[in-house]
Amino acid sequence: MDAAFSAEQGEIRRTLREVITKRCGPDEVKAAVRTPDGHDTALWGALAEQLGLPGLALPETYGGVGCTAAELALGVEELGRALAPTPLLATAVLAAPLVLALGTEEQRAAHLPRIAAGELTAALAVPGTGLATALGLVGDNRGDWAGGGRAGGVQARLSDGVWRLYGQAEQVIDGHSAGLLVVAAHAGGFARSRTLLFLVREGAPGMVRARQTALDETRTQARVELRDVEAELLGVDDADVPAALGAVGDVAATVVAAEAVGAAERALERTVEYVQQREQFGRAIGSFQAVKHRLADVYVQVQAARSAAYYAAWAAGAEAAGFGGQGAERAGGLALAQGLDALRTAASEAVQLHGGIGFTWEHEAHLYFKRASGDDLLFGPVHRLRARAAERAGLFEEAAPEPEESSSEELSSEKAASKEASSEKASVGKVR
């Protein structure tokens, strides 16, 4: 693994930081999340047209830039510093890779160039509140989370050559404004139970979308109700959807981990700035040894989370390129757990060390605290992310049971039987 960034990667980070610093301060963030779209459409247009951010990890064949997960993680890290509300995660990280991996050539050509250009936003809709399960982050995603042949979830039925969807999805990131929905649904009943993905376009008859009130306003969520909605099957009927969702989930976890690192770093920077200005007993509180120790601990945790996120991004890129060895492993879930822990710690310390003003709900420190809590609800919890990583690595596999040793009584009886057999043989020999 080469830990040094290339000149191109450094330019991506520098350019994004300049744009975000100028156009996405705390006041702009609060104003953007209260718009009908839930984000600043002008900023999104600039990120798409000038920087090509939605198509950063898409192939050049479909209008993308052709970069890897590492470049995408670097870009999202800069967005995370300002908690910039954009549809990038839903569109370029969750939905577009599924279209690329499973879609037919016609479907790719119809949607991916528009996504890369920023003209079309997309979202992944999974039944209920099981986004982390569907992405394979907290458990095996080959279960019945999509419906399992029972009532509930989202059910797909093929009638006269047309697929129709019934059901409801909660916590659909940017689902209220997306022009294209990638919906996970259960099909086949008990006879041929399987999970398939479908494309549903904006304005489809029978689809009802409503923006939900979320703890983290900067990560908009929606409820999507599907009532006999006509849908288009993504790819073919026998596609391995759980495997594709698992691959997308690893990259998504890596990107969210990098975003959490950017947010944690910025929360720490703002706290350091504040403790150097606030005075108690005639001196800045940042000069107190206890405060220095607390901030030093946060700094170490943030740097450790950054290293984990960068390694996960490198590993995801190596897997996509078909490398073997260490590059074939998936480290996104573990990096996400590390990143969420770092963000929660940095945000908590920011609230504490800002004193009375930090405890007011309107203070910007709460934006970071709510982002940490919201991501933990969406993609975690952290302990399940770590448990899943340990399960995949085989850390707690039970050892094969060793053969039981015979007791002392059994051994003595066996020895006695052996002596009797030998004495009988000796007596028979004498008789002969």
From TrEMBL:
Recorded coiled-coil stretches: none
This protein's record includes keyword Glycosyltransferase: no
Keywords recorded for this protein, A-Z: FAD, Flavoprotein, Oxidoreductase
Pfam families: Acyl-CoA_dh_1, Acyl-CoA_dh_N
GO MF, one annotated term: oxidoreductase activity
Domain Acyl-CoA dehydrogenase/oxidase C-terminal: start-end pairs: 254-392
Cofactor: FAD
InterPro entries: Acyl-CoA_Oxase/DH_mid-dom_sf, AcylCo_DH-like_C, AcylCo_DH/oxidase_C, AcylCoA_DH/ox_N, AcylCoA_DH/ox_N_sf, AcylCoA_DH/oxidase_NM_dom_sf
SUPFAM superfamilies hit by this protein: Acyl-CoA dehydrogenase C-terminal domain-like (SSF47203), Acyl-CoA dehydrogenase NM domain-like (SSF56645)
Annotated ranges, domain Acyl-CoA dehydrogenase/oxidase N-terminal: 7-119
EC numbers: 1.-.-.-
Family: Belongs to the acyl-CoA dehydrogenase family.
Protein name per its UniProtKB record: Acyl-CoA dehydrogenase family protein
Protein's organism: Streptomyces atriruber
